[in-house]
Design goal:
There is one protein chain. By secondary structure, the chain is of the alpha+beta class. It has two domains: 92 residues, Phosphorylase Kinase, domain 1, CATH 3.30.200.20; 223 residues, Aminoglycoside 3'-phosphotransferase, Chain: A, domain 2 (Alpha-Beta Complex), CATH 3.90.1200.10. Helices cover 52% and strands 12% of the residues. It contains twelve helices and nine strands. It has a five-stranded antiparallel β-sheet with strand order 1-2-3-5-4, covered by helices on one side. A hairpin with a 5-residue loop joins β4 and β5.
């Protein structure tokens, strides 16, 4: 959006803009004339979803969870959202100063685990009487969709649909990747997921949906959760999978990172043996390969990235063995 458009949206919240900075597409850091720093963010969901997200987060924050969300007691926080002239939904939240946690710091990872568990525990109360936007029944379909997409890319490689190096790489390693995809589906079948899916109100919780180092902020007040456009009802294992994947994928799947997250989480909430099985099913799915062949902007479809993805998929096997040992330990 251009500068005067941002000013116009902010004005709807009763905020004047002295300075603005585009963080990335749809997210702006704005400074008011009196020096307050706020985050103006476009929400990709519809109005109904935005209202639901707002209700849930206001309830969760009542429990003391640290969230980057509006304060209805502040003038700029009195409205949950506003629409731009193009009909885009924007929310205005405090800008949380601090630093992002580092997977190299096990203390940071434990703090993230604690914060996520507190969010989940608070979300159990928030969901009462408002069980909507559930993704609990979609797991098989999601894994199968990714599996089929990778198979389509393999078929294109057999027809020499890419550069010769990429064609050769996919032809050589494609069967291995498909084997991992099938293993993920088998793990899901044996995890107890079908029983969970049949009883969503018993097992579902409020999930962030995209946990990872970039969605936490550490400062002197504690550990904040930010960016809630993916808020959903799901199983706690899904959120744990996301934070473990996003924290470990660029660090050679060092299990100590995941252990720190899980140790922190278990300081607050109990994890059942089935939770670990559910995490394993998602982790075994060749998501890194899927991201590369899908051509996401931040992960281009190149030979370098294909090699990175294959190395990642191969490291997950030993990683899951360590996760099984962790789940079986007396302290888990």
């Amino acid at each position: 959006m251009i500068k005067h458009s941002i000013n116009g949206v902010a004005k709807q919240f009763g905020v004047r803009v002295r300075q603005q900075m585009k963080i990335r597409a749809g997210i702006y850091r704005i400074v008011t004339p009196d020096g307050r720093t706020l985050s103006l963010k476009r929400m990709p969901k519809g109005v109904g979803r935005a209202r639901w997200i707002d209700r849930m987060l206001l309830r969760v924050r009542q429990s003391g969870s640290l969230l980057a969300w509006r304060n209805p007691n502040r003038p700029e926080g009195r409205r949950a959202y506003h629409l731009s002239k193009k009909g885009e939904i924007f929310v205005l939240t405090p800008w949380i100063s601090g630093r992002k946690p580092s997977p190299r710091s096990l203390a940071d990872m434990r703090a993230c685990g604690v914060a996520l568990a507190r969010f989940h525990e608070a979300g159990l109360t928030a969901l009462k009487g408002n069980f909507a936007y559930s993704e609990m029944g979609t797991w098989f379909a999601t894994l199968r969709k990714r599996h089929c997409y990778i198979q389509t890319k393999m078929a294109n490689a057999r027809r020499n649909g890419f550069s010769q190096p990429i064609n050769r790489f996919i032809k050589q390693h494609g069967p291995e990747i498909i084997r991992y995809a099938r293993q993920a589906e088998e793990l899901l079948k044996s995890s107890g997921y079908l029983n969970y899916r049949r009883h969503p109100r018993k097992h579902g919780i409020l999930c962030h949906g995209d946990g990872g180092p970039s969605n936490f902020i550490l400062n002197d007040e504690g550990t904040y959760l930010i960016d809630f456009e993916t808020l959903r009802v799901d199983l706690r294992a899904y959120d744990l999978y996301r934070i473990i994947y996003n924290s470990c994928k660029d660090y050679q799947w060092d299990f100590s990172i995941a252990k720190a997250i899980l140790d922190g989480y278990r300081q607050v909430a109990y994890l059942d043996k089935r939770d670990y099985k559910l995490m394993s099913a998602w982790l075994r799915s060749p998501f890194s390969t899927y991201l590369v062949v899908s051509g996401f902007k931040r992960i281009p479809f190149t030979m370098k990235r294909l090699r990175w993805a294959l190395d990642s998929e191969r490291r997950i096997g030993p990683f899951l063995e360590e996760l099984d040992e962790y789940a079986a330990s007396p302290s888990s």
